[in-house]
Amino acid sequence: HAGLDPTFIVGGDIPQLGTNAAAGESDIFVVEADEYDHTFLGLRPEIAVVTVVEWDHPDCYPTPESMHEAFHQFIALVPPEGLLVACGDEPTVRELLGKTGRLEDWKIGKSARSPQPSNHSRKGTYGPTFQPSSLPEFVTYGLDEDNDWRAFDLRPNTHGGYDFSISADLPIAQASTSVPGVHNVKNALAALIVADRLGVRLDQATAILEEFAGVERRFEIKGEVGGVLVVDDYAHHPTEIRATLAGARTHYPDRGIWAVFQPHTYSRTRSLLDEFAAAFVDADHVVIVDIFPAREVDDGSVSSRDLVARMKHPDVRYISTLENAADFLADQLRPGDLLITLGAGDGYRVGEMVIGELGSRE
Fold it and tell me: Residue 5 and residue 2: Cα distance in Å, rounded?
């Protein structure tokens, strides 16, 4: 929308664009990098954004240290004239930067902005404008006061997101998101930093940001029937679940929250069992269905029953199949409730079946 016409590939369809990928005419290429199977090490980024470093994909990263090492290799791919944008609120990200051995010497500070508008906004002129003297080696962002770009004074808005203020090496600016969750405020900061580096005026970028309605399967509202709001989210890691449910609780404080979780892969469930067990504090009711195997084969070492047994939630139950879970929920849900399906498999079908069943009763 800023006229830069990038090529892009991201992990989910963007309804406002009607796709998850497109070929643009400029030489800007935006990629949502995937750490699974070390895929992101095949990239050569001039600008890299690191949002969080948490252990996942234990089938290819047997220890947290092995994943951290892969991220270390990734940030080492950014050339001296490039830019690393890192979430300074995350201790693991700070630790990652420190492991380079150059943290004290790095130019951490308020110099991420060019003093005058660059010619980045002219289609196709991105490459030649990269000058080592005009780019710091990294910029931190987040809510903590010591970040280079900081969001503060967060206020839930009527669009489902937050209004907030931005402090950086510029006059304090105002911005808004239309997608829920504090984590998306941080994501927005990262996007604004990159847009700024590419020559998009901050007032233009924040106006575009406010109109961004999100990605399919990221707090995607599937419908409302009989007073029951049905939402689906791709969250399949404990931290993602916590963030998604916290966003739901903030923006729907008066609704009873029913969470349906379909664990994704046996290896992840087994390795993060305790973290999953503690991730549902913001849900009033929890239903756990069978594990979605994806690329794995069940070796009998872990099951959804094990997760339920580990949980201390006041109302959690195991229901094996999606169909049985949908039947149960259709009978239990009441007007004013929020049903949110969580997971990277086909658990979203529960919400769709509930919508269909409740709709047939009207």
Answer: 8
**239 is written with which tokens?**
């931290």
Q: How far apart are CA 243 and CA 142, in angstroms?
A: 15
Phi, psi of 124 (to 5 degrees): 85, 10
pLDDT tens digits along 192-246: 999 999 999 999 999 999 999 888 888 888 999 999 999 999 999 998 999 899 9
What integer is the mean pLDDT of 158-174? 87
Q: Classify strands 228-233 and 220-225 as parallel, antiparallel or unpaired.
A: antiparallel
Q: 């006041």: which residue's tokens?
A: 314
Q: Are 349 and 232 in contact (CB under 8 A)?
A: no
Q: How far apart are CA 236 and CA 261, in angstroms?
A: 8
Report the greatest alpha carbon distance in the chain.
Answer: 66
Residue with tokens 């209004």: 163
C-beta of residue 46 within 8 angstroms of C-beta of residue 79 = yes
For the chain, the 3-state helix, strand and coil shares in percent, each to the nearest 5, are 35, 25, 45
121 and 1 Cβ atoms separated by less than 8 Å: no
Q: How far apart are CA 308 and CA 311, in angstroms?
A: 5
Q: Which helix (H) or strand (E) holds 209?
A: helix 202-211
- What does DSSP say about strands 162-168 and 83-87: parallel, antiparallel, or unpaired? unpaired
| Tokens at 150, concatenated | 């900081």
Global pTM exceeds 0.90:
no
Residue 341 near residue 231, CB atoms below 8 Å? yes
Q: How confident is the model at residue 104 (pLDDT cuts 50, 70, 90)?
A: very low
Task: Report which of 102, 109, 113, 50 is spatially closest to residue 80, judged by C-alpha positions.
Answer: 102
Give one word for 109, left, alpha or beta, with left for phi > 0 and alpha for psi -120 to 50.
left
DSSP code at position 325: H
Number of Cβ atoms within 10 Å of the Cβ of 106? 14
Number of residues written out for the chain:
362
